[in-house]
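Input chain follows. Return structure tokens only.
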Amino acid sequence: MTNTQATGETRVTNETGFVLWFTGLSGAGKSTLTEAVAPLLRARGARVEVLDGDEVRLNLSKGLGFSREDRDTNILRIGFVANLLTRNGVAVITAAISPYRETRDAVRRLVEADGGRFVEAHVAATLEECEARDVKGLYAEARAGKRPGFTGIDDPYETPTSPEIVIPTGQEPAAASIARVLDYLERQGLIERAAEAVR
């Protein structure tokens, strides 16, 4: 039995670090899910760090543009930091579009080569759903040619071929999406239900 803290309905193993990698189009719900899941894990004793794509660009990847090379550099930097944290027992949640399959797979290889767990979670809202909830007007600007190279409009988003979790945020309430994520982590032994841990 691993060392756990029994605070709340779900418990998190102290020794187990993992990367929960939310990927999807802009507006799919990656940040919303991150903001919901992170405090739930912290409340149950997890050491959690969040690497949000926008914040990383501001602080760690300042100066990078949106060419394929710069986007890959940004994602690989996120992956490097996530791996360092995971090696030290931290549950890392990332929220970044990360549009290119090859680059996401490179991060997976990095994490798994160090013995960590990489959980790819495809936030699978459709382009139409993302455009409909485009509160910042980013898609409208891209359609008007004011944001060249925008993912999903004139730059590709490469859908994951075999993600650990698929989250249809446009087709289910937020509570169901959150439960879907927690259920997977529980089934994989990355977090434990309190009832299971005390047997």
